[in-house]
Amino acid sequence: MQRLTGIDVARGLAVLGMVTAHVGPDAPGRTTPADRVLELADGRSSALFVVLAGVSLALMSGGQVPVSGRDLRRARVRVSARAVVVLLVGLVLDSLDTPILVILPTYAVLFLAGCLVLRWSVRALVVAAAVLAVVGPLVRDAVTLGGGPQGPGMSLDLRDLLVGPHYPALVWFAYLLAGLALGRGDLASRAVQRRTALVGAVLAVVGYGGGWVARLAVGDAALASTQPHSSTTFEVAGNTGVALLVVAASLALAPRAPRLLAPIAAVGALAFTAYTTQILVVAAVGPEIVWEPLVTSWVVFVVATTLVCWGWRTWLGRGPLERVLHGVSTAVAERLVPREVEAREPG
Q1: Which segments constitute the DUF418 domain (predicted)?
Q2: What is the pLDDT of residues 323-338, one digit of tens each?
Q3: How far, in whole angstroms, is CA 20 from its chain's centroid?
Q4: Is residue 84 within 8 Å of 141, Cβ to Cβ?
Q5: Which residues make Cβ contacts (< 8 Å) with residue 273, sequence separation at least 6?
Q6: Count of CB atoms situated within 10 Å of the CB of 64
Q7: What's the pLDDT at 217?
Q8: Is 335 helix (H, G, I), strand (E, B) or coil?
Q9: Is-contact 93 104, C-beta < 8 A?
Q10: Counting beta carbons within 10 angstroms of the beta carbon of residue 82, is it exposed (0 to 12), middle (13 to 18) or buried (19 or more)?
Q11: Which segments within the chain are labelled E, that is strand?
């Protein structure tokens, strides 16, 4: 899989943003510029994380030219195996009962769903993302108001995963589709980066601005909200716009300042390990670090995460959980869809 430092930088920012959302200071009535920056992390970081999952899917399945045939089957097996590992780790982390809402189960479901659209054109991916961004929140709202499906085969946990209050897969699949469409472009191209930034700016204005206008017109209706994790059409559009801006900026800056951005890129390269570790630390320290966050503990989390990932990446390469992901997915793919061996001509 092609590795772009800019994507690692963006993913590192997403992880550090989620750390900030979990243990960062949370003062009511934020007014200072620093408070505004902290506020930006809530909701947007996890959306960026999922958009980048879509980019990763694209890179794993051929980049600009999607794979087909045997290579496509192999890519789907690898992605599915990774999704199972992520799901298992997510369920373990969720069982620790920390105050943190674990995104990994939804992330795994989105990965599995992404296997079905690896051959779609960019146009189809964009249209599907737009449709989901509009229709998904309406369906979710209808299911929530109606009490949800009660028939056999639809457990409460599955319902929460699909249309729940925080990471509803039905809506969040739009983020992954947007990332997959982005990953089909030439991400190293300055022109693509500029277009990505332009589209991101437009989506951010339409999303957050449109939500503001809608609230002026209809009041504080739930479907007009742009609050973090409201998963409305307006929030999805705005969050996608911010994600595209971050990705475009990261791709543009990474080649210009590789040493400066290396620590953040290392966090992105070890994202699975870094995300998992911070939840394990919260479970060990206690919930107070989330419910009563301090600037000191937040700084320690961010600095320690960055330095440990940077050191590990420099001296040991791939992270521990990343090694598991790579090893399991490669082994399963070799078992189920082995690489074709070129036959030698007799001689």
Answers
A1: 190-327
A2: 999 999 999 999 998 8
A3: 15
A4: no
A5: 309, 319, 320, 321, 322
A6: 13
A7: 87
A8: helix
A9: yes
A10: buried
A11: none
- Cα angle 133-184-328, degrees, rounded to a multiple of 5: 90
Number of H helices, E strands in the chain: 16, 0
Q: State the chain's maximal CA–CA distance in angstroms.
A: 80
Helix (H) or strand (E) holding 218: helix 210-218
From residue 115, how far is each of 84, 103, 111, 127, 336 by CA, in Å? 13, 19, 7, 17, 16
Return the residue matching tokens 């070890």: 270
Looking at residue 347, its pLDDT comes to 46
Query: pLDDT value at position 35?
Result: 67
Q: What is the DSSP string of 215-240?
A: HHHH-S-GGG--STT---HHHHHHHH
Alpha-carbon distance 61 to 305, whole Å?
Answer: 30
Q: What does the alpha-carbon distance between residue 292 and residue 7 come to, in Å, rounded to a whole number?
A: 33
* Separation in Å, CA 322 to CA 13, 20, 42, 50, 80: 18, 22, 25, 17, 15
- Residue type (1 letter), 183: G
Distance CA 19, CA 41 (A): 9
Q: Is 51 helix (H, G, I), strand (E, B) or coil?
A: helix
* Residue 189 φ then ψ, to 5°: -80, 130
DSSP characters over 68-103: -HHHHHHHHHHHHHHHHHHHHHHHHHHHT--SS---
Answer left, alpha or beta for residue 231, where phi above 0 means left and psi between -120 and 50 means alpha.
left
Q: Residue 275 and residue 127: Cα distance in Å, rounded?
A: 31
H-helix or E-strand containing 255?
none
pLDDT reported for residue 153: 35
Straight-line distance from the first to the last Cα atom of the chain, in angstroms, rounded to the nearest whole number: 35
Residue 278 sits at the vertex; the CA angle it makes with 276 and 282, to the nearest 5 degrees, is 120
Q: Which residues contact 140 (CB under 8 A, 6 or more apart)?
A: 163, 168, 170, 171, 231
